[in-house]
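To illustrate the input format used throughout this study, we show a single complete record. The first block contains the structure-token representation of the backbone; no residue identities are included at this stage. The design step must infer an amino acid for every position from geometry alone.
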């Protein structure tokens, strides 16, 4: 098998080579001849001989096939790579960022042309400030100055992760990410504590401090293009310095007692006030009822007097006698007395008191 070339091989037009192009000049040799000449040329530089012969051709052919196989293996092995579910792949070509890949099987140029940085974007990371998980205290990190010129020991932790949307910022924009996050957390916490009073930060302002520090940290890291998401800021402990800790605890206990007493007073007031209001409403209702009854009685007495007066004008004598008898009946009726009428004689009429008999018969029963 031979093919012709004019001045430089099959890649130079207008010659025709093994892809069907016709010769445009005199033949210069076949493939075996070219291999032999290359072998002779290389043999001049090889120690111990000039490199001729059939065995040398076989050796060069083997080397060429070995190199070709190595190139194919290099391409196949280095082109494909796998990204784990918690990772994002950062593709580099000649050291330049070209894009990111999701979890699964992906491709890139093999080394040394291309490379891949796998970033664990879903891993939750923790930075401890002012203390360590083994219980050690770090005063140079924990001691902070409040707005009212008091010192407090603040131990807190920051939960964060790499931003899945911007892992390239995390890889390329900050040199030591964990140290950067920790430094930002400590700086922002000192700033926020400096805006609070010691009483507030020891008692009621803890939740607001956590939220404020998280927001300020995220804003500052976004300005740095750090590719970091701050998930949570947790205050582990906030105490006064050990020299005055007992005094501040007494103050806190007194404040709690004060609040408890206030709550008890409010509870008592909530109980007594409704009862007093109910009693007042009842008294007012009784007074209104008595007023209405008195008014109605007065009106009834007035109407009765007017009726009697009308009858009196018609028959004064009869009316006076009737009024006298009714009055005597009302006055003497309940009295236990016996009145004997002598009818103008000195001898009394025998009279049997029925009341005594009635009473004795009633007692006999």
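Output of the design step:
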């Amino acid at each position: 098998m031979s093919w012709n070339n004019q001045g430089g091989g099959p890649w130079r037009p207008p010659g025709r080579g093994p892809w069907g192009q016709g010769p445009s000049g005199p033949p210069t040799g076949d493939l075996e001849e070219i291999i032999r000449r290359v072998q002779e040329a290389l043999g001049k530089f090889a120690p111990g001989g000039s490199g001729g012969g059939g065995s040398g051709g076989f050796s060069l052919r083997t080397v060429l096939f070995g190199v070709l196989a190595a190139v194919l293996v290099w391409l196949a092995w280095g082109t494909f790579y796998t990204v784990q579910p918690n990772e994002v792949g950062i593709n580099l070509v000649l050291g330049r960022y070209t894009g990111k890949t999701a979890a699964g099987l992906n491709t890139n140029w093999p080394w040394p042309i291309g490379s891949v940085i796998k970033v664990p974007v879903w891993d939750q990371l923790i930075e401890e400030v002012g203390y360590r998980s083994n219980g050690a205290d770090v005063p140079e990190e924990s001691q902070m100055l409040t707005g009212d010129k008091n010192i407090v020991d603040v131990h807190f932790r920051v939960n964060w992760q790499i931003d899945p949307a911007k892992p390239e910022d995390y890889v390329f924009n900050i040199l030591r990410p964990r140290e950067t996050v920790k430094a930002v957390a400590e700086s922002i916490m000192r700033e926020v504590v400096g805006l609070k009073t010691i009483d507030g930060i020891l008692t009621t302002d803890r939740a607001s401090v956590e939220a404020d520090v998280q927001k300020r940290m995220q804003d500052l890291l976004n300005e740095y293009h750090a590719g970091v998401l701050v998930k949570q800021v947790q205050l582990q402990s906030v105490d006064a310095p050990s020299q005055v800790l007992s005094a501040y605890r007494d103050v806190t206990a007194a404040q709690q007692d004060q609040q408890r007493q206030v709550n008890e007073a409010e509870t008592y007031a909530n109980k007594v006030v409704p009862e007093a209001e109910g009693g007042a409403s009842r008294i007012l209702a009784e007074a209104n009822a008595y007023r209405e009854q008195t008014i109605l009685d007065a009106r009834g007495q007035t109407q009765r007097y007017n009726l009697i007066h009308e009858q009196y004008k018609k028959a004064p004598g009869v009316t006076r006698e009737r009024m006298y008898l009714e009055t005597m009946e009302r006055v003497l009726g309940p009295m236990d007395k016996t009145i004997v009428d002598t009818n103008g004689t000195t001898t009394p009429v025998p009279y049997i008191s029925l009341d005594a008999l009635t009473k004795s018969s009633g007692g006999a029963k």
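Structural context for interpreting the output: The chain has a mean pLDDT of 79. The chain has ten helices and nine strands.
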